[in-house]
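Postdoc handover notes: sequence design on the structure in folder B. Input tokens:
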């Protein structure tokens, strides 16, 4: 319902075939995103750093394909959008790399490959394993978290700034991004990312909440 209503509200579309939804997280609550994309008829590309979560969702049948290759992911995304194929593709990697690759595609081809975007990393707990920084691989980041949590925190905040910068670039070209109630925008703001709403007070964000704007 969230994906469908986001399409209705932001894309003015009842039919989401040929549209792309990019997000992250295939764990506990976020695991349903892959299934939601296919039910809604769009292309869902969901990034997840933990391979165990990807394999679990694939085994369940909630996730149709898995790849750790961004070139392959972009090619599949292009093909599925063009042919209006409902697809859930799990990218085994950091969502920041995915967002930045989408910016690269925009800059080099002029093509905006994503229509809807969100995030379901566990940003209510960003410095204890809920969010993994793009600068490190999954296992390396887990090691740093246990040996130097202060450095881990710094990398997370740097990663959040890159994360938001890529989203902002795509949103400026017409992608519609919403907050999924996971404290992503709050933690990004605390990290110094550009998420504040222009001309509003500091408690308002430039992207809407799914509770008020979509489900409501």
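Designed sequence:
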């Amino acid at each position: 319902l969230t994906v469908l209503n986001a399409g209705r509200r932001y894309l003015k579309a009842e039919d989401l075939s040929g549209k792309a939804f990019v997000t992250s997280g295939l764990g506990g609550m976020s695991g349903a995103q892959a299934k939601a994309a296919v039910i809604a008829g769009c292309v869902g590309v969901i990034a997840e750093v933990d391979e165990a979560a990807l394999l679990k969702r694939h085994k369940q049948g909630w996730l149709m394909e898995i790849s750790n290759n961004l070139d392959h992911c972009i090619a599949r995304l292009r093909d599925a959008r063009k042919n209006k194929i409902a697809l859930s593709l799990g990218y085994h990697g950091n969502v920041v790399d995915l967002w930045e690759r989408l910016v690269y595609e925009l800059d080099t081809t002029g093509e905006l490959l994503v229509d809807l975007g969100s995030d379901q990393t566990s940003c209510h707990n960003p410095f204890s394993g809920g969010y993994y920084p793009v600068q490190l691989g999954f296992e390396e980041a887990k090691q740093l978290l246990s040996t130097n949590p202060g450095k881990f925190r710094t990398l997370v905040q740097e990663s959040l700034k890159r994360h938001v910068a890529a989203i902002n670039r795509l949103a400026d070209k017409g992608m519609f991004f919403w907050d999924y109630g996971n404290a992503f925008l709050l933690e990004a703001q605390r990290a110094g990312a550009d998420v504040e709403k222009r001309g509003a007070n500091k408690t308002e964000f430039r992207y809407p909440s799914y509770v008020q704007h979509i489900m409501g």
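Context for whoever picks this up: Residues 149-172 form the longest helix (24 residues). Don't rerun without checking with the PI first.
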